[in-house]
TrEMBL record:
It comes from the Bacteria. Its cofactor is FAD. Residues 30-200 form the FAD-binding PCMH-type domain. Coiled coil: none annotated. Keywords: FAD, Flavoprotein, Oxidoreductase. This is FAD/FMN-containing dehydrogenase. Belongs to the oxygen-dependent FAD-linked oxidoreductase family. InterPro entries: BBE, FAD-bd_PCMH, FAD-bd_PCMH-like_sf, FAD-bd_PCMH_sub1, FAD-bd_PCMH_sub2, FAD-linked_Oxase-like_C, FAD-linked_Oxidoreductase, Oxid_FAD_bind_N. PROSITE patterns: FAD_PCMH, OX2_COVAL_FAD. Gene3D superfamilies: 3.30.465.10, 3.40.462.20, Uridine Diphospho-n-acetylenolpyruvylglucosamine Reductase, domain 2. Signal peptide: none annotated.
Amino acid sequence: MPPIIDTPCPQLVPGDPGYDDARRVWNGEIDRKPAVIAQVTGPADVTACLAHARAHGLDVTVRGGGHNLGGAAVADGAVLIDLSGLRTVHVDPDTRTARVAGGATNADLDAATQAHGLAVPAGTYSDTGIGGLTLGGGFGWLTAKHGLAVDNLISAEVVLADGRVVRASADSHPDLFWALRGGGGNFGVVTEFEFRLHPVGPLVDVGLFFWELERGAEALRFVRDLVPTLGNTGLMIVGMTAPPAPFVPEEHHGKLGYSLILAGFDGTEAHAALARRVRDTLPPLFELVTPLPYTELQKMLDGIGFRGNYAYEKSVYVEDFSDGLIDVLVANLPAKASPMSATPIALLGGAYTDTPDHSTAFGGIRRTGFVVGLTAICPVPELLPADRAWVRSHWEQLLPYASNTGGYVNFMSDYEQDRVKVTYGPLKYERLARIKAAYDPDNVFHHNGNIKPR
Ligand SMILES: Cc1cc2nc3c(=O)[nH]c(=O)nc-3n(C[C@H](O)[C@H](O)[C@H](O)COP(=O)(O)OP(=O)(O)OC[C@H]3O[C@@H](n4cnc5c(N)ncnc54)[C@H](O)[C@@H]3O)c2cc1C
């Protein structure tokens, strides 16, 4: 069949072998049928896709890793610009930089950079796309030591809505470069990210400590006291059901509780001292303290959910664990229906606070705090309505304790316009809207946390 779009890259239309696989995203609930899926091989293909969509009045979506739980990467009847074939990562160990293709995943990035003992902060799940993750901010285990993914971005190659290809950096299109660092996929298709890298590993230290629900409030209060002393250590505390994993004693499988995960980058002795402090203050039900290759740490949470699970998510930012907030978290955890649904709470601290708030478009305040994720993950679709309702009700009860009720733009399943505005705040939103008007006045890129052109 001749190509639909005037460019030689593979193109799939309904009925083609591979079409159904190519339109699937992480969230199994999303079932949309694009008019054509263009498996682009570089910026020229992207330009051709945009011209085709413009000429035929079609919607455009862009797919990186396909992790957005609202399915922003795919729309009925649209031209889907599929970046999943663009996954090359070039590392220059001398300059400690990496050029990362727009469809690469966390796993692609980590494998290439760790081959040189280097890394950049990115997500905590190996399958997530670097594209969507970075454009929304991108936190990971290294955030306390080296900031967000966007704090380490040097430049980006972008195909703009009118088809032009530009490189955005501090010196070239600085307004676009500012907007790309947190403003999401609103401003163009990024075909290449250039990151600054840092020496990491290859071995790092991990500590996982689990307390049953009855001691959940104590665990959260303990974390509150621990945070100011943590330095570079990455921290996440997850309200969850203990999985049937090899390191979980069989008698605790299926128990509801809180898992504290600490990722240490400052040597085994410092990490061991931290682990002792946890044990001495609040002995856990079970624990796993071990050195681990950094690439394995980056896969440690892969078992929390799987591509094709039925999912929904909301979040808020909080600055501290007040007693009221802790009560709401602990009271709501038992109401979830799916054993995989969870409340992952990630610390944003340390080096995260070194970047001035106004210097990137990231929609979170650069003070020490947490992003509280409320995540429904269901192995069967029948459980999703109950856990979607659980997420919404839990979220509403958390609002009084939030420092930003919009939450993390990358943890939105519904892009409600008022929430997107709240996430960025009026000043950043206004600046983003002006930049949007300059680079995408017709709002071609609107399947995202949309910034309306001003
Ligand atoms: C299991 C799981 C774990 C996660 N863990 C983390 C985590 O640890 N840290 C964190 O910060 N976030 C995390 N996230 C959230 C994640 O950052 C977002 O879902 C993000 O949108 C994923 O990007 P993607 O490219 O995979 O998604 P997609 O669904 O492909 O894209 C999301 C949005 O970004 C746009 N986009 C993607 N790539 C490009 C590009 N190259 N150029 C222009 N626009 C693009 C798309 O058009 C879409 O609007 C997680 C999500 C899941 C499901």
